[in-house]
Design brief:
heterodimer; A: alpha/beta; FAD/NAD(P)-binding domain; 3 domains; five-stranded parallel sheet; 10 helices; 33% strand; B: 489 residues; alpha+beta; D-Amino Acid Oxidase, Chain A, domain 2; Arc Repressor Mutant, subunit A; eight-stranded mixed sheet; five-stranded antiparallel sheet; 30% helix; globular
Chain lengths: 430, 489
Amino acid sequence: MRSIRYTDVAVIGGGPAGLAAALAARRAGAEHVTILERNHELGGILQQCIHNGFGLHRFKEELTGPEYAYRFIPQVEADPNIHVYLNTMVLSLTPTKEITAIHPDHGLVKLKAKAVVLAMGCRERTRGALTIPGTRPAGIYTAGTAQRFVNMEGYMPGKRVVILGSGDIGLIMARRFTLEGAKVEAVVEIMPYPAGLARNIAQCLEDFNIPLYLSSTVTMIHGKDRVEGVTVSQVDDNWCPIAGTERYIPCDTLLLSVGLIPENELSQTAGVPLDPRTGGPVVDEKRETLVSGIFACGNVLHVHDLVDYVSEEAEIAGEEAARHALRETADEAGSGRDGGQQLALKPGSNLRYVLPQRITAGAEVDLYMRVSHPMDAVTLTLSGVTLAKKRQVRPSEMLKIRLKAQHWESLFQAGKAPGQELLVAAEPSA
Amino acid sequence: MGERTQYDVVVIGGGVVGTAVLRTLSRYQLKAALLEKEAEVGWGATKANSGIVHAGFHNKPGSWMARLCVAGNRMYDQLCDELDVPFQRNGLMMVARTPEEEQILRRFYQQGLDNGVPGMELLDGDTARRLEPNLSGEITMVLRAASGGIVAPFALAHAQAENAAANGADVYTEVAVTGISCGDDGFTITSQDGGTWKAKYIVNAAGLFADDVARMCGLDVPSLIPRKGEEYILDQRVGDLVKHTIFPVPTPKSKGILVIPTVGGNIMIGPTALEMPRKDDLSTTAAGLDEILAFTQRLVPKIQRRDIIAAFAGLRAGSPTGDFIFETSHSGRAVHLLGIESPGLTASPAIAEHVAEMLAEAGLELMPKPDFNPRRPRVIRFKKLSDEEKEEVIKRDPLYAHVVCRCETVTEGEIVDAVRRGARTVDGVKFLTRAGMGRCQGGFCTPYVVRILARELGVSPLEITKRGRNTELLAAEAKAFLKGGEADA
């Protein structure tokens, strides 16, 4: 039987989250860091995102996806103690942080880590998840698959396109198809507001006169062999199609941009509990999951709209993973975390989710959250304590709010203590 | 195209029945061929079949359905072992909720005994729920048949064709038969694009289109009834909801809407049974889904809409008599299989033997081939291997270390193997290897599968199709739509 290899911090996934986590882990003192990447190169999904707009927050520049990735990749490659395994697929992870992976040259590899950072990213929701009625012809793709075909493989999936869902990848692909000479007939969104960022609505649809139909959905796919058209209907407040509003749009391609789902199959093999609201693991402010020594960051934890925040989050996870590994080195018996000092964070009024879901009493940290529906003039509160005021909040834009010492003082005065629950809410400002 | 190629027997239709007939014929010293109108075998009713190997209590004693179902069921262990096709005897349960339905179960139990079905028992609701804890609490009685099983119908059809071909039979795909004439030297079969095949005997296994083919032979047969069934596949996360295949008491038209474990590990719910005016409507509908959910949630309340990952529909070759119909023409030299609906999959190995007997009676000489090899080279399913076996297979072929489909852990080695076994399309690869069948439904792997297919077949990715003619996945090379090479903004 093959030998077992050892590492301090194993990072699963070499996309933006994994890259930043690995560098942060090294900076925080981890001696050996190992990145396991299934693709033949580092960078993850950024490699197919050839449009610009990445890095505005972090680098104050508009970078393309590959450019953003290359702010990290050379540093990773220059560090002899970051061991990068490409073309490596992780098959399983145990709660004791033993990884089984396969590699064309090394065969089946077992790797034992002191700490693990989950950075596997997410996948797209599909037609099946929506159960759109109709036939199953060629010409139906998720927006990300189409992006790969166009940007990486060099092929156009079709010439006349309807896009269901106004997620950011769909908006980007509306522009991409248009620039490639295809005709984008419409973007159809079931909600009364767009799912993607406002800047993408402006730069990808409005600038190209691509119509956006809100409160509408595809109710039938037509075509036996190849997509020939779709029926689009308006929907009521319960998302039910309204009879009589059907319109037929001829097209040869239907792209789906209807949401992303954190890819946590591997996390589950390690018994990592997930939050049904985010689809990712439940974590504390260190981004440590409920399985000691296993951390998570990036889109595997919750779906981000800006990669800048992914890097930021990954640095927290990488740094804390390094600390965990160092503690294990110092004390082989292992040092469990002190969960007794934690409070649970729960989403309240108009909040879809808040992260982290657990927080150490008194910790000054950034909270990430998304609202359920758009709202103007909003006060964000934590169990009654005002955290911030916003002119406008939208589900498409993740909010980042600093939890400060003064907030904790108010919370403690109100009698909040470890073991209790805190409720984050978005309420109309008085 | 087949230049007046001379065969002893030509089988028309490459579904699970046609391929079973072809494989049976390939045991003998004769020249046999199969003509299939789709790009690969198994793409008609077979592809959309529920995959249930029935026990045989559903059908009236003495009927062809009852006899061939029970006989076919017994043949499955050996068949699937020889062909290395996934098959499990997971057992099936027919459930009752009311005293009236309990009476029906008792009748089916008796009917099963009359048909020679082994391993049946009547259980009370609580006993059944100990075996299947997710069964509805309303269920009061269950008829359990241990001999019921599940199989991958498409894989079986493909394996039968592959094995028949390895034993000397010829398989032609994308051949739609449009005419059959009979002269002194036997039959001449012509296809849509002008190919011709000569045969001394014909087996019409054209499924839903068998009535059309029978009429080409001058038979006046009643029309088959296209009966659509929609099915919905649930995420593997809920793959252990039930172990048995769960049936309600049947309706006059069908066995009802079921909860069906599959050999791939997903639960499937369906099918509906709606008579259709046409033979080409494979659409799924909102009404069909609602009906299936309402019915199956009464059997297994934990079934949820949000667990659905895929949907499809198939058309059964509904029999006008309610039984399989074996017609002959030309003094028995043409055998027509009509109305092979459920339990057609289960019965197919027995149907194939029956057809061989019918041909022998009409004068076909069946001399066993001494070198017939019933076994197909084993298929490597990477995901199912032990660590040691994985290590071994990667050492032999590093392509097995490249996982192409993440959801189902399907490697490039398996995809290349499927192409070498005859897969030519993205759907063909999908149905043989499960690449693209998981929860992301090909989102990640489709571009890679296209690339591998193009490489292995030596064609451009633009020629790769989803499932044959007119289903190309890609329209053009990037920039091709831009006139005069306009710069990208």
